[in-house]
UniProtKB/TrEMBL annotation:
SMART domains: ERCC4. Residues 281-307 are annotated as: Disordered. The keyword DNA-binding applies. Residues 281-293 have a biased composition (Low complexity). It comes from Rhodococcus aetherivorans. Keywords: DNA-binding. The keyword Cell inner membrane does not apply. The lineage of its organism: Bacteria, Bacillati, Actinomycetota, Actinomycetes, Mycobacteriales. This is ERCC4-type nuclease.
Length: 338
């Protein structure tokens, strides 16, 4: 008995190989690779007569065992490495599909771990708000969570403290991550998330999945993600193996952020009375002194947007976004001595 892999004679097919296994007189599948090394390979069953009369054989390996067990075919090859695999008949989105997987890719797709059910950060019931536009939202069924659904200014899941959003998590799958990265929407999402005290993006897949993409250059995606992390380092992009682990990570991240926002005096001060983050250290000290009582009745400190608009009106060069230079703040202070 032999397993034979040949080149698919149809050049227009996206499945470039034919796989023949010695079961029931021979089963033939179209597939995209010669072995499921990094991911499970999709297989399309075809009639036995589609096997070419003079195939261009890529690989021919003796088979030690080929047996059907339920909805799967266990295949054991007569070689030292990459010798065990399984052809699985299943359904996806209401369609019958077949996948060719190895023990390695099966473990990656369904990690052999059990997610813990212990309370995150000791919180009896974490109040999580789910964005009303989120489809197929996490239910946190095994966790101590109180869910509320309403519109969020950014992200898909968030926690509030004193009616202020203190942390948010944006959920992405790889099929959703790649288009949002290439069309620029992910850049705007990170800019909004970066304005929060704590925020993150969680991806329901492994980082290695981006290097198996076919419709876009993997290097383009990897470079884009790296550039976003350098530009917004306070919004981590976290890759989890699957949806269950991404849900677990989201729950524990939001719980930690909720405790941080409650306990840290600096977080409470930021939530209660935010100030422009672009002001120089000396100016922020003056603002703190006036807030303590020495300057009651003084006008509030200008926002970054106000100073940027004033500087442009004066012909001073300022960036469209980000921090303003100290000399711009000094020029504002000189022009507004009051």
């Amino acid at each position: 008995m032999e397993m034979v892999i040949a080149v698919n004679p149809e050049p227009a097919s996206k499945l470039g190989y034919l796989l023949r296994v010695p079961l029931d007189g021979g089963l033939v599948f179209r597939t995209s690779g010669t072995w499921p090394r990094t991911k499970a390979l999709y297989c399309h069953p075809v009639p036995i007569d589609e096997w070419p009369d003079d195939p261009e054989v890529v690989e021919r390996v003796a088979v030690r065992s080929c047996a059907r067990r339920g909805a799967a075919i266990d295949l054991v090859l007569d070689r030292g490495r990459e010798n065990r695999s399984q052809i699985v008949y299943t359904t996806a989105r209401g369609r019958d599909v077949v996948f060719w997987q190895s023990p390695r890719t099966r473990k990656q797709a369904r990690p052999n771990v059990r997610t813990p059910t212990a309370r995150a950060a000791g919180i009896a019931e974490l109040p999580i708000v789910v964005d009303s536009h989120e489809r197929y939202a996490y239910r946190f069924a095994d966790q101590q969570v109180g869910l509320t659904k309403r519109a969020l200014p950014c992200g898909d899941y968030g926690v509030f403290l004193e009616d202020r959003l203190v942390a948010s998590v944006e959920r992405k799958s790889v099929p959703d991550l790649v288009p949002s990265l290439t069309n620029g929407t992910l850049r705007y999402a990170l800019a909004e998330l970066a304005a929060l005290p704590r925020a993150a993006i969680v991806v329901e897949d492994r980082y290695s999945a981006i290097f198996a993409l076919e419709r876009v250059r993997p290097a383009t995606v990897a470079d884009g993600l790296a550039e976003l992390q350098v530009r917004w380092p306070n919004v981590p992009i976290v890759f989890c193996d699957n949806r269950a682990l991404a849900e677990q990570w989201t729950y524990r991240y939001l719980a930690a952020a909720y405790v941080w926002a409650e306990a840290e005096n600096t977080a409470i001060a930021r939530i209660a009375a935010p100030r422009p983050v672009d002001a120089p250290a000396a100016e922020s000290g003056d603002i703190a002194e006036s807030a303590s009582g020495a300057g009651e009745g003084a006008p509030p400190a200008p926002s970054t947007a106000e100073v940027r608009a004033w500087a442009r009106a004066q012909g001073l060069p300022v960036p469209d976004r980000g921090r303003l230079r100290p000399d711009i703040w000094q020029a504002w202070s000189s022009a507004h001595p009051e």
